[in-house]
Amino acid sequence: MVGLTVTETNKVLEDEPKLPFRENTASVKTDSDGSFSDVVTARAQSTSEKVSGTEAREIIRKQIENRTHLVTEQTLTISAPGQGVIATAVYRRTFTNLDEKGNHRSTGGRVVNNFRVSATAVTVSRPKSP
Q1: Greater pLDDT, 48 or 91
Q2: What is the DSSP secondary-structure string of 3-72?
Q3: Residue 120 has what pLDDT?
Q4: Which of 70, 94, 114, 129 could form a disulfide with 42 if both were Cys (CB 3.0 to 4.6 A apart)?
Q5: At residue 130, does pLDDT exceed 80?
């Protein structure tokens, strides 16, 4: 649906190693396709400055060569103009570069993506009556 307002909250369920967690506190509106973007990172280095290709490769190399496992529960509160909150959507998402046994997925020194991202089914519910 176009023009809905979506606000997110996140709860960290698992994190290895324990790292600072940031979430987008701003609400977003759904676009002409009824979609919105949500940028998510785990163990990311962000900068507002432009970096060279060499610097970017080094940032990525450091990121993928370190253990990362993050599981969050995200709640999306969805509001419609003039109607207030119309639904809540909840799901869990996992960002990890660990295998099923908890071992780091090694890249053997090569700069390749060793992360796996997964999400559970989304549970959508109507708001509770006052």
Answers
A1: 91
A2: T-EEEEEEEEEEEES--------S-EE--TTS-------SS----SS---HHHHHHHHHHHHTS--EEEE
A3: 97
A4: 70
A5: no
CB 94 within 8 A of CB 117: yes
- Burial of residue 78, with CB atoms counted within 10 A of its CB: 0-12 exposed, 13-18 middle, 19 or more buried: middle
Structure tokens given for 99 = 């295998």
Q: What is the pTM of this model?
A: 0.80
Contact 94, 118 (CB under 8 A): yes
Q: Which residue has the tokens 């979609």?
A: 35
The separation between the first and the last C-alpha atoms of the chain, rounded to the nearest angstrom, is 25
* Tokens at 27, concatenated: 């609400």
The answer to whether 95 and 115 are in contact (CB under 8 A) is yes
Average pLDDT for residues 45-64, to the nearest whole number?
84
Using a pLDDT cut of 70, give the percent of the chain over it.
91
